[in-house]
Amino acid sequence: MSVVAPVLAQWMARQRWYQAKGAEPALRIVGTLDGGTPGVRVATFLLLDEAAAEPLLYQVPVAFRAQPLPEAQSALIGEVDGRYLYDAPHDPAYVDLLLRTISEGGRLEGADASATGHPSADPGTAVSSHVFSGEQSNTSIVVEVDGGPVPQVIVKLFRLVHHGENPDVTLQTGISAAGSDRVPRSFGVLTGSWPDPGRADGVAVGHLAAVQEFLPGSEDAWRVALRAAASGEDFTGRAAELGEAVAEVHETLADVFPTVPTTPADIADAVALMRSRLAMAANEVPALLEHREEIDAVYERATRAEWPAQQRVHGDLHLGQVLWTDARGWVIIDFEGEPLRPMSERSRPDIALRDVAGMLRSFDYVAGSLGQDGSSDASVASAWAAAGRDAFITGYGRRSGVDLASHQVVLDAFELDKAVYETLYEARNRPAWLGIPLAAVARLVTPNAG
Q: What are the tens digits of pLDDT across the range 235-249?
C-alpha cells in the first residue's frame, strides 16, 4: 500500500478537516480495515501524520473501483494501479457497509487494526445517502433508511481518532439512553483498535463513527437568532426555552455520569489556566493590557468564591451547537468539546457554568455580527442581546432550580475567560470582528455591569 500513501497525502492536504494547514502531510499507515461489496473494495486507512509538531491520527476510508463513479466525481482522490480511489463517504457501497457493521454488531478486520459495531437500536437499511456539506472537523453522511423508526439517520465519521472515549459519542449516547429528546436519538457506534507503541499494552481503542437520528427541517439556533435580531423580533421566549433545554441536559448528564466536588486545588488550576490564556492573548492583542488589572481582579474574586460541583458538560456550547425543530423545540448537538483542548481534558468533569458562559457570549456575537456592515443600530442590537441573555438565565434557573446570581462571580470569570480567548481568535482570523470580544471584556470588568 506504499503507493497509496503519496496519493492520499496530496488529497488530504486540501481537505477542510486536515489540521496542519500549509504543510505537506508526512503519512505512515498504522492500520487498515477491509470490507466492501462485489466489485468495490473499501479500505479504511488509519494514517499517522507527522507533519505537525504533534503527530495526529486520521481515519481515511477509501473506495477502490475499477470503473469511474460519475455521481462521486468531486470525491475522486486519484488513480492507482488502474483503480479509481474515492473518498468513501461519497460511495454508497461504503455507506451500506458502515451502517450494517454498526447496526448488526459486525466486525471489520484488516492489517494491524479491527473495528466492531455496537448497536443501541436498529436504524433500518440504507436506501440513499449524501455527505453533509459544510463540516470542518468530521464527515457526516445523511442516510435515507427503510424499515427503521426514523426516515433518516446521520452517520458521523470521526476524521481525527484517538485512544479513549470521544465525548460526542459518550455524552450524546448517555443522554439519549436516559430517554431525553434534547439530543438526537443514538443508534450505535463503531469502535476500533490499532497499534500504539506509546501505550503499555501497545494497543489503542477509540471511537471511529456513530449513528444518530437526523432531524430534517431543523435550523441551527445561530441562524434563528440572527434572523430574529435583524428583524427586531422578540426572542426572549425562545431564549428562556433554550435556557431550560440546556439546564435539562445538564441535569441528565449529572444523573447519568458521576459528579465530583470542586476542591480548592481544582479552582486554583482553573484560574491559573484563565491567567495563562490572558497572558497569551495579551501578547497578540495589546488592547487587553489596559484591562489587565481589572481582568485579574475578576479572576482573583473567583478564587475566593464557592464553586458548584463538577460534572460532564457540553464544553463548547454556543448557538451553532443547537438546532430548532418545530416538533421538539431546542435540540443540542456536537458534544466533542472545545476544539483546542486535548481530548483527554474534554472527557473530564467540568463546571456547568462554562456552558452557560459560552451561550451568553453567543448572544453577544449575534448582536456584534449585525453591526459589521453598519446596516444595524448597534444600541438596538446590544439591547436585543442583553434581553436574550437575561431570558436565557431566567429559563436556566427556572428549570435547574439554581439561582445563577449566587454564582455570578464564577460565571463572570468563565465568560471573561471565553471573551479573552475570542480576542485571540479574532485577532488571528477576523481582525474586523475584534471589537466584539473587546467590548465584552470592557463590560465584564466593569462592576455590576456583567
A: 999 999 999 999 999
pLDDT (0 to 100) of residue 51:
87
Q: 3-class SS at 116?
A: strand
210: closest CA among 194, 192, 193, 196?
192
pLDDT of residue 244: 98
Helices (H) and strands (E) in the chain, counts: 12, 16
The total number of residues written for the chain in this structure: 450
CA atoms within 13 A on the CB side of 297: 9
The answer to whether residues 267 and 309 touch, using CB atoms and an 8 Å cutoff, is: no
In 3D space, the residue among 276, 305, 289, 283 whose CA is nearest the CA of residue 442 turns out to be 289
- Residue 340 has what pLDDT? 64
Could you give the CA distance from residue 356 to residue 243 in angstroms, rounded to a whole number?
8
Q: How far apart are CA 291 and CA 225, in angstroms?
A: 30
Strand 219-220 versus strand 322-325 pairing type: antiparallel
Cell numbers that stand for 428 in this block? 488571528
Residue 262 and residue 308: Cα distance in Å, rounded?
A: 7
- Alpha-carbon distance of 2 to 369, in angstroms, equals 48
Q: Which residues of the chain have pLDDT under 70?
A: 1-2, 339-340, 373-375, 448-450
Write the DSSP symbol of residue 305. Answer: S
Q: Which three cell numbers stand for residue 252?
A: 441528565
Ordered domains of the chain (ranges, CATH): 4-213 (no CATH), 219-444 (3.90.1200.10)
Which residue's C-alpha cell is 458538560?
313
The secondary structure of 37-74 as a DSSP string is ETTEEEEEEEEEE-SSSS-EEEEEEEEEESS--GGGGG
- Give the span between the Cα atoms of 84 and 90, in whole angstroms: 13
Type of residue numbered 160: L
The amino acid sitting at 422 is E
3 state SS of 322: strand
The residue among 357, 372, 370 whose CA lies nearest residue 419 is 357
